[in-house]
Design brief:
Six copies of one chain form a homohexamer. The first copy, chain A, is of the alpha+beta class. Helix content of chain A is 31%, strand content 25%. Chains in contact: A-B, A-C, A-E, A-F, B-C, B-D, B-F, C-D, C-E, D-E, D-F, E-F.
Chain lengths: 295, 295, 295, 295, 295, 295
Amino acid sequence: MVLESEALISIFDNAVMLGDTVTESTRIFSHRPFKLDRLYKSLKVTRIDPGCDAQQMMRITLDVLDANRSWMLQADDCWLVHDISRGRSIAGADPTIQRSQATVMIFTQPLDLLSWARFYEVGCHAVTAMSRIIPPQSLDARIKNRSRMAYTLAEIEVKLVDPQAQGIILDVHGFVAENKGGNIFAITNGTLRTPRSTNCMEGVSRDTVLELAQQLAIPIAEADLLPYDLYTADELFFTSTPYCVMPATKFNGLPVGDGKIGPITRKLLAAWSELVGVDIAAQALNQLHRPTVDF
Amino acid sequence: MVLESEALISIFDNAVMLGDTVTESTRIFSHRPFKLDRLYKSLKVTRIDPGCDAQQMMRITLDVLDANRSWMLQADDCWLVHDISRGRSIAGADPTIQRSQATVMIFTQPLDLLSWARFYEVGCHAVTAMSRIIPPQSLDARIKNRSRMAYTLAEIEVKLVDPQAQGIILDVHGFVAENKGGNIFAITNGTLRTPRSTNCMEGVSRDTVLELAQQLAIPIAEADLLPYDLYTADELFFTSTPYCVMPATKFNGLPVGDGKIGPITRKLLAAWSELVGVDIAAQALNQLHRPTVDF
Amino acid sequence: MVLESEALISIFDNAVMLGDTVTESTRIFSHRPFKLDRLYKSLKVTRIDPGCDAQQMMRITLDVLDANRSWMLQADDCWLVHDISRGRSIAGADPTIQRSQATVMIFTQPLDLLSWARFYEVGCHAVTAMSRIIPPQSLDARIKNRSRMAYTLAEIEVKLVDPQAQGIILDVHGFVAENKGGNIFAITNGTLRTPRSTNCMEGVSRDTVLELAQQLAIPIAEADLLPYDLYTADELFFTSTPYCVMPATKFNGLPVGDGKIGPITRKLLAAWSELVGVDIAAQALNQLHRPTVDF
Amino acid sequence: MVLESEALISIFDNAVMLGDTVTESTRIFSHRPFKLDRLYKSLKVTRIDPGCDAQQMMRITLDVLDANRSWMLQADDCWLVHDISRGRSIAGADPTIQRSQATVMIFTQPLDLLSWARFYEVGCHAVTAMSRIIPPQSLDARIKNRSRMAYTLAEIEVKLVDPQAQGIILDVHGFVAENKGGNIFAITNGTLRTPRSTNCMEGVSRDTVLELAQQLAIPIAEADLLPYDLYTADELFFTSTPYCVMPATKFNGLPVGDGKIGPITRKLLAAWSELVGVDIAAQALNQLHRPTVDF
Amino acid sequence: MVLESEALISIFDNAVMLGDTVTESTRIFSHRPFKLDRLYKSLKVTRIDPGCDAQQMMRITLDVLDANRSWMLQADDCWLVHDISRGRSIAGADPTIQRSQATVMIFTQPLDLLSWARFYEVGCHAVTAMSRIIPPQSLDARIKNRSRMAYTLAEIEVKLVDPQAQGIILDVHGFVAENKGGNIFAITNGTLRTPRSTNCMEGVSRDTVLELAQQLAIPIAEADLLPYDLYTADELFFTSTPYCVMPATKFNGLPVGDGKIGPITRKLLAAWSELVGVDIAAQALNQLHRPTVDF
Amino acid sequence: MVLESEALISIFDNAVMLGDTVTESTRIFSHRPFKLDRLYKSLKVTRIDPGCDAQQMMRITLDVLDANRSWMLQADDCWLVHDISRGRSIAGADPTIQRSQATVMIFTQPLDLLSWARFYEVGCHAVTAMSRIIPPQSLDARIKNRSRMAYTLAEIEVKLVDPQAQGIILDVHGFVAENKGGNIFAITNGTLRTPRSTNCMEGVSRDTVLELAQQLAIPIAEADLLPYDLYTADELFFTSTPYCVMPATKFNGLPVGDGKIGPITRKLLAAWSELVGVDIAAQALNQLHRPTVDF
């Protein structure tokens, strides 16, 4: 257990040398348990041996959370991240063999929602990138990994249109795939639709929304969506671990529906807030309105 | 300038968090100059500001080389690597904006050729991966980057066939693209062919071979190659910065040509050795036959 | 009606000259009726005129079965195969026109399950091929045909990993398609999933499993499956006419689930055994343990 | 050595069961030698062991030619075909392993040019198929094989437009690939263009035309051709072993150029006739005008 | 409001210069209301400002209908079409900016069903085109637009097979997409299947059929259909605004089912006729049997 | 011959109803002859019968030019456009049959270069669209046609980044294809490269540049270009009929080379100016600096 400033790894670690790291990010609401299933799926598929099983990993993780409890403000939740690389890269050696112990990085961070907070009030501007998502026969997005340069470059393209824009990356057929770290939902005539999990990362937040929608009797469909579906949607939103649900009220410069955050989006956000016992939007907006703290 | 054991970066660096690092690797032969053009091309396309221009970078690099001169054995060459990330990742901030200084990592390493050395004598076994290369509309391989999980996973697939195999990754159309860190050449009826640079990284070693072939009046062609072309080739070899030219004498379990290293491959390796004033194969085999040193 | 050793056709038959043969294979359980619908669909789409309608074909087929009844051991079932080619190829003539009678080959064979029998106990090793399935816009896999060189070559690739491996061929997008003569099922969180029939042959065994699953109230889905889905599945199995259900306990070198044959696979195999009144696994294992007979 | 009527193989041969046969067809002009290189390339890539090396195969082949010399008319050339399958298919056994000797079929046939003869005078009608060629990542067309159902079905589609039409099959991107057994050439502004060998079978006749063109100083290019290029070509022709060069004067119902056989096509056919010492067109037309013989 | 002969636009209008027109066609049954939703969706996605909102457009449209009421025969319905272009194209100006008022063209026409009428009795011949539909990442077919040259050219290809044929255009993967102005339905084993709306225009008639099928308890599925599915279907029909439901009894030269119009097709046509209070087939056949009038 | 304000066509013309118009645009420099070859190629492929042959069309065209000679200012050149549609669309009739005379529209316009003029001094900003070009198996870009909605929509996307941006449309593989009405050239290390004509319209201006480059001994290559090639190019320019050569000095927000118009671009523009005896840039800039005239 080290301080943030002492959390260092070798520049010869495979995390740096090859982006050979799997990851999982969780938002820790007050008392909510979390799971490490997906992390262990990613570890299996990439054949990284983390050096301990899921139970031991859970114990270590809880220790990390305990150690960080002190600094967490009452009203704020935190962000819990696991990064596990294939360990030390050895010059000239086969990089696919894990010769050393895996590098296990676990950290919590206060949830900084500043960059998204105002979108809970006015919605964000969703913009499609020019580049296309990495197809699954090259790298399956469901392996949550840290080789994410393609996502960063796509997001940069999106910012050319609007520096505040949130990106939508299409797949090589032009279907809507995912955001750089989140999923996309469109509501048309009361039905909630989202891309199939074969061309997007299967986010935990995505699952939560699908479950909440089912509880609220909102019809749902995993579908092939095209930009046309987003242009003509009544409502649009992103999901991701930090912000949960982020309404989009503009798509490629045109208003989504009437240009305001829609009722089903609000309903889902309210249901989620209730589920976790935290007013998610209020918590974020609160950050916006209090004096900034530099972490 | 720090010792290898002190070459550490924060786990919050974008190098770790997003594989958001461009790189360039050079093999430093005795007196050979090297260039940083490609590194600056990668920096431009990824919009990473390294904090200094190419001239300054060259000066710093030469300092690093000087500092490491002492440990370099007479007979061995070294490996010079630049890794430049977008700097510190800040929780909740737009990762596409470089808020801090870039993280510039420059290091030299002794060239460990042990894993390849015996291939100079008997040739290696080239095997095609099941997965396909990331297509350029997702991430152009000519951006030399450290988001290389897809390459590692492809290489692991290849090792299922033969733990010593060297991988050949096809593109989404089934054309031969590249090796995890090198290029592929086939010789058929005296013509040297290699995949077009639109679906492979444009390696410096690849360029060197093309130039040497031109000097030796060996006809060359950038072409769409299929596994059929490799099965029926007379000779096959890989190129990469550490080993320069690595003959392959087996492809997917079948002998290439007569199963021995071919004359054109030998000619190119000899020409390269002459160019740099070092017997490249002998140097590697020398490592194989002397007592191992653990770095 | 001729003996096996006398079942000969001309080397100028379109079966040999063009692989221009449609086929249907049926496993004849004790008293089970069988259908010729699919055979007649294949005949229609390929425009081969078999020279008799489905009823007549059924009568001839029953005669063939009768003639072979004597040699069939009590405990063993048999394999019934129809092969119908476009008939004699005439030098220089348009091969798409059927100038002569179709060549109708009908035969039964004892079901030799030796190569699969032990997989009922320990499961097989499923391995993905490097090549991709023929896409339906080139040749629809639902036309059951004898132009199967692509399948043989893919299966050879798979054997490079493990000579006992059973192949999984992906489509050109990287989605799981089919085995060289069978279908693939994955079970994850209790749901049984199999590729859509648009990129695999629609096997009779596949249909049987889907029906049995429905009867057993196991949720089923035709889906786009990727290798990731197989790596992270709890259970995996193949279906094909000879072996019905063949568990796979290893995928590309990694254990499937806990590496043992799973409960839903067992349940489906039991249901099938009950349906046909034959303990399918026992019958196969019985072959394994009795003295080999060379047919 | 058997008579044609006795040239039979088992219906259990892999030739029949799996279309698992490689082939090579040669047109034997009066005194011309021929080569077996391509046949041995196909055997290598498919891993079929023919049981003898190329020299022995040549001796056997010459014996077959000798034995058939008697019936060959003075003026006619013959067709020499090799078909080599993986041998006997054994029920339940792994079809990818060659357990028995390969089945080697070698035969000569009189060249029946009746179906093409009149095209030497008026040109044929080239028509594109609706289906697309098998892509090389599924089965490389350069493996000359007998799994050709896709070609037969494409040719049937073409005959829907015109029962005399000669088919042009496009690849999955819409580029011109090949004819069911031949190659396609277009002449525009004096340049002779033909599809790259990565999406067509690399016919011997194709090579001959490229060599003749070079000798005649006709500019040549391997290129991606689209239907547009054929619609707007000045001349169009097919090449294949039996007919050598076959002019096409109509494409999808529109005249090619002025609708007559063009000068460069004539020049190439003349050069070929000179090369082999036979007036190729006259020989074919001769067949047309003499009393039909049924072989 | 002008006479047909006076309905002229400038040749400099973007309708002519760029095919930059969105459209909507409606068949006006006796008293049926119609909607302009789709038209406004197309306008939104293409960013054409029609100069009035949907309500105003409805009022103008009703005026057009009123003005044309006089000439409409009792028994005939009419065709109502909206064409809205981006207005005047100005030489040298950015064509994507709408500098002038949109050109709004609204007209009614008597429904001339002559070319389809006899198909209600005998069914039509459906034929697949050689070219492939424009993929949605190039232009989404759900934007109902007048840039339809690709459809015209595909239809011309189809007419090469049979001048009366109705075209079926496949997508770039070979899946059935749409007809030049209609949708395609196949019935197999009692289930009604039609391509997903992601690769076809989402016709109003298509929706009507899906709704009628639901009311009639006919199972429906949006699916990936291949030519194989049409070859082996029991029934096949097209839907489009003018003819509603058009049975196809032949597909690429082969009979569909028993070659007669099927019971489910008849049922759906009857239900539609009932819905609109007009015997749709009778009305068309009536046109066929009365003296032709040239409009 | 009518005045511009009287140049009207029926809204029932296929030009309006189906975008079924082929076109050719020529810039008429002082005394330069022009050709109608391409127009007649487009007419042939689309099977539109213009009602007169190329010679007659030329005569009519020269008459149109003569009639407009009076208004042409001394210093300005003009724009000559042919638009030929399949004629009148008849309700209910097969639109692929040309029942009436083709609609032949020929007009000249003063060359308004205002929107491009300043780019001769500072270069323009080239930006890639999100959508992809129509692939040639759907509609070959070399058919110069007026069904251009896809181009307009792509251009609108580009304007989201910068209202002055000039668009670059990629093909479905991500390769650089074309501009909405022009071609793209990149210069890297002295070599001039441009996309192959299989995925772009083969502009006359493109040909002119290739010819001028050859005369100037500038190495040229038709190649698969990716955005990476444009990001790292030394110079970049567009070609199109109105502006001839238009330098781009910014690509997706980054400077091209040093951000200034490059020497080879200038050389080519100078050579073109010399060829036609008009200082092309000066002529455009002259328009910029004189009082605007509204046409």
